[in-house]
């Protein structure tokens, strides 16, 4: 969930790479449905951190995680193509 949130935050053409993950498992679950939520703690230009909460069908917290991702966005294209003839020659 946190990786998907970071990828969406990176935007079109961007990417997210996980750099740190810390999890605490509060209880085990052997059956049923789990529900998760990824909440942004910080979303910056090149990094994003999310708290991920996973709960069981009764609403009890099963796991708490914190994920930090590096955010990579595409570089903007220059408006004019590079023309080596425009470079100045120095003596």
Q: N-to-C SSE series?
A: HEEEE
What would you call the structural class? mainly beta
Weakly predicted, low-confidence segments: none
Percent of residues in β-strands: over 45%
Instruction: Characterize the main sheet.
Output: 4 strands, antiparallel
Radius of gyration: 21 Å
Query: What is the count of helical runs?
Result: 1
Mean pLDDT across all residues, rounded? 90
| Proportion of residues in helical segments | under 10%
Write the layout of secondary structure elements.
Blueprint: H1 2-10, E1 15-25, E2 35-43, E3 47-55, E4 61-72
Antiparallel strand pairs: 1-4, 2-3, 3-4
Q: Can you walk me through this structure?
A:
The chain has 91 residues and is mainly beta. Helix content is 10%, strand content 45%. It has one helix and four strands, in the order αββββ. It has one helix at 2-10; strands at residues 15-25, 35-43, 47-55, 61-72. A four-stranded antiparallel beta sheet has the order 1-4-3-2. The longest helix has 9 residues, at 2-10. It is elongated, with a radius of gyration of 21 Å. The model has no long low-confidence stretch (mean pLDDT 90).
Q: In summary, what is this structure?
A:
The protein is mainly beta and 91 residues long.
Keywords, separated by commas or semicolons:
single chain; 10% helix; 91 residues; four-stranded antiparallel β-sheet; mainly beta
